[in-house]
């Protein structure tokens, strides 16, 4: 509790009610008072209502008129003194401001007229009037405003006119009327803001007081910023996966061992994908430990060398030290391998996905960088077949509006059979490769200890390709890297329209 909050409680205790905080605490600004009152109200120590009062203050010009009389009165007194006044002499005699405004308002009040000689003279209405008896309305209203008396009796139109003439300025005074709350006291117990598991498990919550939700809070007004297109498309894919019962894999480890990135996936150690011109190797540290599952390691050695689980293997001398090298993962299937190895501890139908960065030491061009975001899904279930894979791909892509898929056999070291997936793109008027897929091999799955009939299908695509198509981006560098324009969203029509994923 702040000193000021305590001061408020003590004053409330003394007075039983605070009719005006302004009168009691003139030294505190209304924001400070409001903040203290809100905090105490949250503890049910008090209730309060806000009283806003509109105020008017005289400007310098307004004060001058109050002291010397209005411009229109000054003009009629000068005309009375001179008998008449050439219009051309008004400004020189009274000055531009008094002359111009005085004339306009004197004419409006019917106090002056212009004769045939272009002279100003008092109107018939004023001819037989003692000007000392002439009511100077402007001056008397300014006096009323200065004294702050009966402002509500002044015609709002007059107040607006005085504001327009910059004779007065409008302000606001915020005051508060405070009464005791249902749990008023001059001490303050700490209000908890979070209900923790400890509070529940120890029943401590029963003796604690919790701060009520402030549903009227304005919250953080986000007035700027925009999501990156890749993040927007990633979120669309994430929602599709979630809607199909998939769980997101932990993908925040970019550095992988050669074992999980290649050997576990039945990629032979002499495969070109493992060469330096395709893969980024880490210099320091140079190596990492292998999994401590000796059976698993023995199976991997066997399937690579003479084969096992019905495979004849690659017939080469498999070297464990090759697995200990560290790489920037070249595909997110390395994560899938780790997750499937975990699954072997408790095998059951499972749906997993990941969307994250992967790295390829390849030549870069307008549509390829040395990294991209791989979208990958794996589905484990008993006795599923290639037909299930085809059907699932059609369901998956249909959720982003892509239908009429065609499948073409291809090769992946870790899946057999494997298929590239194509879709006809109306806008590009051609068949576009939209992904790759396959049934993971027994050499990979049974080596992990997964049961023979628990089959796993997998598929992958990149995040950049659909994003570039969606936002009509020709060069990947418009989307990713240090050359991205910060006003991409504003200048990219597709971004503004935020069309469906695949138009
Ligand atoms: O994303 C790709 N193309 C694509 C994807 C989507 C799209 O629009 C969406 C439908 C709305 C439009 C285009 N491709 C895969 C195909 C090509 O772009 C290809 O030239 C580039 N490929 C990348 C790899 O290239 C080095 C895309 C990337 C890719 C390829 C394969 C996989 C993942 C990403 C995989 C896999 C896999 C297979 C089996 C089991 C587990 C994972």
3D architecture notes:
- The protein is α+β, with helices and mostly antiparallel strands and 503 residues long.
- It has a domain at 230-499: Bira Bifunctional Protein, Domain 2 (BirA Bifunctional Protein, domain 2, 2-Layer Sandwich), CATH 3.30.930.
- The protein contains 21 helices and 17 strands.
- The strands form five sheets. A seven-stranded mixed β-sheet has the order 9-12-13-17-16-15-14, sandwiched between helices. A three-stranded antiparallel β-sheet has the order 1-6-2.
- A hairpin with a 2-residue loop joins strand 14 and strand 15 (415-425).
- Helix 4 packs across helix 9 (137-146), helix 5 (71-82) crosses helix 7 and helix 14 packs antiparallel against helix 18.
- The longest helix has 15 residues, at 229-243.
- The radius of gyration is 41 Å and the shape is elongated.
- The mean pLDDT is 91.
- The structure holds ligand FB9.
- Ligand FB9 binds next to strand 13, strand 16, strand 17 and helix 19.
- It is an enzyme of class 6 (ligase).
- Tetramer of two alpha and two beta subunits.
- Its cofactor is Mg(2+).
Name the descriptors.
single chain, 503 residues, alpha+beta, BirA Bifunctional Protein, domain 2, seven-stranded mixed beta sheet, three-stranded antiparallel beta sheet, 17 strands, binds ligand FB9, tRNA binding, PheRS_DBD3, aa-tRNA-synth_II, metal ion binding
